[in-house]
Amino acid sequence: MTIEDLQTLCHQLPGVTEDIKWDHHLCFNVGGKMFLITSPDEVPPTASFKATPEQFEQLIGQPGFAPASHLARYHWVHLDDVARLNPTRWAQLIRESYRLVVEKLPLKVRKQLGA
User: Which Gene3D superfamilies does the entry link to (predicted)?
Assistant: First the structure.
């Protein structure tokens, strides 16, 4: 997997936008809230995403995963190399992160997204 592959997966979801934050992090957002943060300039490229509390505990016990700096208290997970996961697993994790963020958006925004 590459950052471009992650972009493709993210843009398959309704209402996704992307922007650059903190000078070099490519962030994917829905309703103005982040659900995936990537570091395309790092070698290898890395990514962080939101998870359920259960997923968080499970994932951080696996090689390459760690609590995301500054966001772990919100159950964000950091992956040290986006190529560690196959497209199917990435699609699952991205959809789940997206869903968790959409759940917290105002009703009006969720309706606009069709959620």
Answer: 3.90.1150.30
